[in-house]
Amino acid sequence: MTDAEGDARGALIDRLRHSAEPAIRYRAAILTGRAGGGNRGVLSADAVASLREEIRQSDRAATLLSARKSDGRLQTTGHVYRKFIGAHWVLVDLADLGYPPGDRDLYRMRDQVYDQWLQPRYHASFEYSQRPQANERKGVPHANDRYRRCGSQHGNALYASIALGIADERAHELVRLLLKWQWPDGGWNCDTRLEAPISSFHETATPLRGLAAYAKWNGARPALADEAQDAARRAAEIFLSRRLYRRLSTGTVIHPSFLQFAYPRYWHYDLLAGLLAMMDVDALGDPRCADALDLVEKAELPEGGWPSGRRYYRTVPVSGDPAGSNISRVGWGPHGRKQMNEWVTTDILAVLASAGR
Question: Per-residue pLDDT tens for 98-127?
């Protein structure tokens, strides 16, 4: 990076530090020195903690939690996994915001999510030989030495509960299930086609992040933490061997959506999701990440920052229980290829900083 580029990057981070959104200011504070470094403009640890408290008190957090009842449970029509306003997704959103850890008021929501993903049906499995049979019984279908489960669900629950400081002993069981379902190539896939050959990028990125978080969690059981770390590294090889977005066979882009950054990503994969996962397992220094990092740097807008090229949600009114799926009670910044999105930008800056760029 040239001096001019460094100055431009510093100016961009300074803009983000003055965002109206406390979660963006918190992310920028982390970028400018990991708190308390003594450099000019770097926030103290107390100031960062104050920012996280602002996140707790923010309109965004209040809106995400607006369907929470007096007993602490978040109630919406349907499943805790209802996209994207169920308790599962709200906890993931709060974790990504930097919501302060250890809030006991989130325990009932955690229980809702744990109770869902640790039902007996996920501890049972059955063999099938024809695809229609995969949905005929309760339990996890199994064929050709592969469990067909959406690892992103349990992976996101594990990641969010640890990041929010609300995980308990049930987190160990989430880890055991993910380890049990891991495919021979190191990932996860819920595709019930018998001929499905490899793990899914979509279903592998979040289990990787959840297992990596567990390996660093102070509540982890040492032997299980070692297994989780090993599993996360095996999963990383799925992405690294494909340079995070290219086919092994031809070197072509696996899917155009991988090159369009989104926020929130929810369960979807893109190049940024892959780089964040590599950051979690300290793999950004691997030469196989260089191509992806170069591509991300080149995508920066002329005036600085990065856009959101895809959107996986639509916003709905805050009040009531809206109909439909893929909905959000809050917006997540501008969408389009010519406007900077602060959420995408701070994620990318975190990756580039971790990669030494």
Answer: 999 999 999 999 999 999 999 999 999 999
Asked if 177 and 49 sit in the same domain, the reply is no
Please name the residue that has the structure tokens 């978080």: 213
pLDDT of residue 37: 40
pLDDT exceeds cutoff 80 at 249: yes
135-177-288-241 Cα dihedral, nearest 10 degrees = -50
Rounded CA gap, 155 and 206, in Å?
5
The alpha-carbon radius of gyration of the chain (Å, integer) is 20
Same domain, 202 and 82: yes
Residue 50 shares a structural domain with residue 76: no
313-356 per-position pLDDT tens digit:
999 987 778 888 999 999 999 999 899 999 999 999 999 999 99
Residue found under tokens 């709060």: 94
Whether the Cβ atoms of residue 298 and residue 347 lie closer than 8 Å to each other: no
Which tokens hold the place of 108? 């009932």
Q: Do 129 and 33 have their domain in common?
A: no
SS3 of 162, please?
Answer: helix
The string of DSSP codes covering 275-340 is: HHHHHHTT-TTSGGGHHHHHHHHHT--TTSS--B-B---EE--SSS---SSSEESS--S--BTTS-
Residues 65 and 48 placed together within one structural domain of the fold: no
As separate numbers, helices (DSSP H) first and strands (DSSP E) second, the chain gives 13, 5
- Mean pLDDT, the chain, integer: 94
Instruction: Tell me the β-bridge partners of 308.
Output: 336
Q: How many residues does the chain have?
A: 357
Domain count, the chain: 2
Residue 351 lies in a domain: no
pLDDT in tens, 12-54: 999 999 999 999 999 999 886 533 344 445 678 898 899 999 9
Peptide bond into 141 cis (omega under 30): no
**Which DSSP letter does residue 239 get?**
H
